[in-house]
Design goal:
CATH class of one domain: Alpha Beta
Radius of gyration: 31 Å
Number of strands: 15
Order of helices and strands: HHEEHEEHEEEEEEEEHEEEHHH
Strand order of the largest sheet: 4-3-9-5-6-7-8
Structural class: alpha+beta
CATH topology of one domain: Cathepsin B, Chain A
Largest sheet: 7 strands, antiparallel
Number of helices: 8
CATH architecture of one domain: Alpha-Beta Complex
Distance between the termini: 100 Å
Helix content: 25-40%
Strand content: 15-25%
Shape: elongated
Amino acid sequence: MSDFKVGAKKAVVAIEHLLYNISESELTNVAAFLAQENSVPVTTYCQKGGYWTFEVVERFLLQRGIKCTKAGVGGKWLLDAPRFLRENPSVVGFLDTLTLNSFKWDGAQWKTPTASCTILPKQSLVVIHKMWIPFEKFYDKTFHVTTDNDKWTRYECHPTSCWRMETVNYEGCKSAVKQTMREYKKSPIMMSNSKEILMCKPTSKGWKTETLLNYEFLSLQASAKQVSESLSTLLVDHIECSGGDRGWTVMAHALFSAFQHLKGRLNPNDLSNFSEEEIQTLKDYEMTYLEKMNQTEEV
């Protein structure tokens, strides 16, 4: 807990330096809420004259979607280097939990409310960051979040509920998964989890799994792209070697289905081998031909 004697209104100064102007009553309300929540006197968190503890600042920020994460403790740095963190659009700045000194990058140097700073303290520092920024680009679609600690739990966010996080536990749902897999029991299927992409093949003794690609050290997007490129090459080679015209038809329908699923819009001209100039020439020729045919019919 920060010291009440670090200076009057240090909490207000810190927040306004990092974010925007606030009223003292907002911090006092937060202090009252913490006191009621923990069944302690309100003087535990604030005193007359404009003194508030770090806990009040931390809860005030959290209510606005901004988190305080430990960056330095006992002279030891816990996160990536500050020069790397300052490039993160979610990072607002740093705050000393004992003195309530705030540090903000101005594009050239770290600055406190009153001066510049060349070295950040590592004793009791937290980084102030906007929690929603990493998920901001997903706020027009449904997304799911899984963690390593919760083996069978998935947190689902849907646009229809304004992305309210719903906790769904899939433990004990093996029968539902098996029922889905039975529909494809005559052919291999591809599955993916949080670490790898698997090929599942039906056998007389059950499903045999083989790892196609482990993406523990790759992003899911990069891994999926790599698998897609490899599959496309293998499929084209297979069709050309087998000599079957049906293969190209199957591939065309599969690609169209994927394109449609991703809400792509197909223009017939997109599939033509003619250039835009050649297509326009053909259209002009067609118009001229139709005009001459109409003239002939009139004669």
